[in-house]
Amino acid sequence: GPWQAWAYPPPKSMGRNSQLQPLLVSTPQQCLPLPSQSLLYSLYARTRLGYLFYQRQVKKARERYPHGHSVPQPYCFPGVKILPIPVLSNNYSYLVIDTGSSQAAVIDPSDPLAVQAAIEQEGVILEAIFCTHKHWDHSGGNEVLCQQHSSCRVYGSALDAIPRLTNPLADRETVTVGRLTFEALATPGHTVGHMVYVLDGGPFGSPPCLFSGDLLFLAGCGRPFEGSPETMLASLDVAVGLGEDTLLWPGHEYALECLTFASLLELDNPALEQKLQWVVQQRQEKRSTCPSTLGEEQTYNPFLRTHQPELQEALGLWQAGGEDPDAFRARVLKEVRRRKDLYQAT
Ligand SMILES: [Zn+2]
């Protein structure tokens, strides 16, 4: 997530905010469990400091991974091409192309150079940017791309401060780009205005494609920075409701770390073990692990398994007499989250 940025020293010129520098320098490694009320989160999400750190993050990642953090594998169905673009140290942007008209949309363009290179290589016209949420590692490329593609529209929730937003979307609203149809679904929790986008595969004989941003990862889930466990649970249920054949295209390459954590929670889950073995192989060769399907996610992703007695037992949680089932599942989700944060902090 955005906390990658804090692993680096802050920029030299911090202007009037320079009194913050000692605080930032003393911040330990990334991946601390930071509540949304914390000062660091507010700085990242709501001030120019967040942008400065994002710029540094982009620069570092370009040096460290000149060809991207992973080997992208395009996914093609007759009439549609989905190109994952590995950006920063573990983010994915996605270029979605209507191959008939060469019109394209990009999901979460964080590094505008990498996205522009893909646009040029594919020879497509950028019609739309879809932003899942405001965090810079998902929206930081909007500005530059809009300058280069003056007719490009920017979609997202009006509840998130998305740079250059031109077309605020409501829950369940659809947008067409050439022959591509995307449906926006409000999925608050990680941020108040978080949205996911579902590409209708029908016209192409393909399953639906879910671009999940920081709602859902392979075997993982985004931190609920701006929502309660109940809110996050409801948003995850929206995703699961899309159906088992739906392809999951997440905002980050977190598969190895998420599955390793999951395997410590559920010690006897063959589906999980099998997926972990496959992911280890993929990552040894720097290959991308997406897409998975929502069907398989429900067999190993602990954040989608809050209803499973095996997981509840492993966590030492039991439904209280008269406790609402969803309230109990939210409690399970909260405990999985707590353990994941502890796991990452060590
Ligand atoms: Zn985020």
TrEMBL record:
Q: Which cofactors does it use?
A: Zn(2+)
An example GO BP is: methylglyoxal catabolic process to D-lactate via S-lactoyl-glutathione
Q: Give the matching SMART domains.
A: Lactamase_B
What does UniProt give as GO cellular component? mitochondrion
Mind telling me which Gene3D superfamilies this protein's record contains? Ribonuclease Z/Hydroxyacylglutathione hydrolase-like
Could you name the domain of life of the organism this protein comes from? Eukaryota
Do the record's keywords include rRNA processing?
Answer: no
Where does the record place the Metallo-beta-lactamase domain?
90-252
Protein family per UniProt: Belongs to the metallo-beta-lactamase superfamily. Glyoxalase II family.
What this protein is called in its record is PNKD metallo-beta-lactamase domain containing
Q: Which organism is it from?
A: Serinus canaria
